[in-house]
Structure prediction request, 1024 residues.
Amino acid sequence: MPRVSKHNGWFAAIGFLLPCLTGLILFNLIPVAGAFTLSFTDWDGLKPIAPKDGVPAFVGLDNYASILGGDEFWRVLRNTAVYIVLYIPLILIASIAAAMLLHRPYRGVSVYRVLFYIPVLTSWVAGALIFKSILSPEYGGVNDLLNQFGIRGPGWLYDPNWAMPGIVLASIWKDMGFFALIFLGGLQGIDSSYYEAAKIDGAGPWRRFRHVTLPLLSPITFFVTVICLIFSFQLFPQVMIMTDGGPHGATQVMVERIYRYAFSYFKMGYASAFSFILFAIIFLFTWLQLKLQKKWVHYDA
Amino acid sequence: MKWNGRQWKLLALCMLVMAVLLAGCSGGGKSSGNSGGSSSGGDSGTARNNEDTGGSGDKAETVTVKFTNFSASGDNEKYLQQMKEEFEKQHPNIKVEIETLAYDDYFTQMQTRVASGTAPDAYELNYENFVSYAKKGVLLDLTPMFAGFDTSVLNKNALEAFSTDGKQYGLPASFSNVVLFYNKDLFDQANVSYPTSDWTWADAEQAAEKIRSLGDNIFGIYQPIQFWEFYKKVQQNGGSLMNADMTQFTVDTPQNVETLQHMVDRVLKTNVMPTEAQMAGMGDWDLFKSGRLGMLVTGIWAFPDFTQNITFDWDIEVEPGNTAKATHFFSNGLVINKDSKVATAAFEWLKFMSASREAAQIRVDAGWELPAVNYQDVLDKYLQVTPPNNKKAVFDSLNYLVTPPVVEQNAEMTDIIGLHLQAARDGVKSPADALRDAQKELEQRIKLQ
Amino acid sequence: MLRRYAGPFFFYVMATAIAVIVLIPFFWMISTSLKSKGALTAVPIEWIPEEISFEGYRKVFDVFPFARTILNSAFVAGLTTVVRLAAAAMAAYAFAKMRFRGRDILFAAVLATMMIPQQVTFIPLFLVMKELQLINTFTGLIAPSIFNAFAIFMMRQHMRTVNDAYLDAAVMDGATHRTIFVRLMLPLSAPILATLAVIAFMDAWNDYLWPLVMLSDPNKMTLPLALSKLSGQYATDYNTLMAGSLISIVPIVAVYLAAQKHFKAGLQVGGVKG
Prediction:
């Protein structure tokens, strides 16, 4: 830490933290506290809140109990888990590979950088429609391609076993540019002198990658993994637009259920409780990652 | 270095922004700050907000009614505008402020507004949400305002649909029903005679099979296997989803299983109806418009689109039944916010939109859904617009109207039934199993008082 | 000899292959936007429309006051980006390089906010806005972006990699935290700032639900709101929708291209090796 010791502590920090703290408290903590309180009520999300009129009524832990005791919660948790297990390894590999590719100083690389990023810029409305037709079992491009190799393509979004992989595919298409950009930022922060040193030591491209790039990239990799996990648990727009939770609930995920309960079934209290259970799960996984980061993340050379 | 200058400017800008934000907290006045010369619409938006909730007393004569809707979005905004102008001519002391939003997420928006007490004075709801809103007590009971209102001008079924627990909570904006559309060219090709109003399920199936055999890509009939079709189709077979006084679900009765079997066989056995995979994300209207579908069961709101875009000969007929006929009734409702301060004026506007001759005429001339009125001259005008030639079928279908069963947990109920119907449609469960599971889940999760 | 060309060859082949795969859906978008309504339903799917029709584009310009909407969106997105980045950079610096009691717990709390699904804090947040009387104002629309955990997290990660020794050297020269932040940290963070700028701009540009709920004045409407009006209760004009989506991508691409220049800037600013 800079030895500006008399400038450390809250006095110095408060100036830097103030805008964010204000936002944090006003636009985050207060609504979250509100939502938390509501999770113990039976609020329908429609009638204006008037505690003296008994709107809403407190139901204690009923919401939590019926969520955890029912089948639906575990079913959608499993669906979400399937997504995560498929998506995260694939997106990490794809993004790092893309970033490595885009890091080359060849002519025209900035054109490629824009091209790779275009899926990220499209809204999910357009993206989902596109993928719905690409993944069409009879007329879609994907199965067309597989046919060329003699493989019979699955029913994708119409088959309960292949719907989630279909969504994973669409998500990777859309997100790869996003994370590639982030990794690219990280790659550009790596001083080239490290590579020079490694080359001098006779290390080939793969060894340079393993022993220079990956470790120096680890803070960003850590960041991306944490973010990816947090976002994946909250998978939402793709499911709503591509399959609407189908076929027969095979792609119903946590946030999709939360949205339905909050804005369709008029059970806001229940939806709140659902969210906080989700929060607890995500928190647990993130905490684990933070604890483990010491084992593989290198800050400072 | 160039950086320093830029970074200082950036920081200065941030300070400025922060100051603006903090200043903005003490009143919404920053709204017009963005572009100079913004039209008065921008400012009066916030001003009106306060005016309405603060009581209309300060501008003694003119009252403003804020009205939000979705059905005018797209091409129909100008017709709504016409209605408003006509209304304001007749009621010079009432101004209507119209807001038209897209249908998607309209209800998320509306729910947020109602929950936070910032709902408009009057707004539109589709039928499913209407019942929930009414039962949860956020709508104004309109019954007292009906004094002196001759309700015989309104279609009885449409009006009754918007009364809950004996009180009238809404007025019908328009109404529609569902009929059988058919592609005359395909019928000619397959040498099948056109549908008549005496047709039964068996007649429809026969025709569908003949048309299906015309080609691999050509299908005989399409009728979605989902809640809205199912609740009606079971009644064509003498069954129903709930008992007469709505205290019990009767989903898995033998007649209903038979009905579902009939619908599912079309897809899985005879394939006169395409599977979801065969549809490949294409909509049913698109299939019909492309000339590859013999018969389609869908709503009369398709008329403008089909008239504009279909090149082959087509017409409509009353939907065939089995032991009875049953047709689907569909309507969007107009309601008033319980806490509105200008309820009387709002009611005048809704009454105009729903029941006046002028508004009905505007609708018919525009081809914008059907007004729920009984003015024969206006309705005659409607009949004269062709295609389709057999417009009479629209009114004949009214004789067999069945309204959907609505409960407080409406969306949950339709989703549950829908999910199980899908399983049957895709061949994952037999119709008997699907309906049995639906019955079980409904009994578990839906409370009927 | 071959080795000299192997590198570039591999690069161009791979990059082009991936670009093509990634862009096929995008090409479909363009193709759909140029179809007339009737052709939308042709089967099998037409990759290249038989007749090119600009009907979709025409309708987009018909449906709403286009110029005004784009201006609104640009204003909102631009301001949001500045606000978000400025606040996040400052907070990230505090978390990365300053020491104060409760720093790590506060940071954990910041992270934790990302784990609550927005759907559920949506209405409570709206209620807060109502209390602050910020409904239907641009201020209310932009204000929540003053706190963005993602941006803080990302910048903090990056700032932590800056060697302390380098900063200590500045302290020796009598620098305060503020000086270090402005003259050292910000320039060094240029690539990350540029990256975040693109992300923040895009988020704000494409945001739909929050403006939907916050803005009821049609003059304040942003682009996604206007585009959504193209789908009706019963049917969607796909060609118009795709045309509108394509149009709305253009400004973001412009921002991206502008930001790209700064991706390299970080490397030019002195050597970090201490």
Remarks:
- The interface with chain B takes residues 19, 44-49, 129, 132-133, 136-140, 155, 158, 160, 246-249, 260, 263-266, 268 of chain A (CB under 8 Å).
- Residues 61-296 of chain A form a domain with the MetI-like fold fold (CATH 1.10.3720.10).
- The two ends of chain A are 15 Å apart (CA to CA).
- Chain A has twelve helices and no strands.
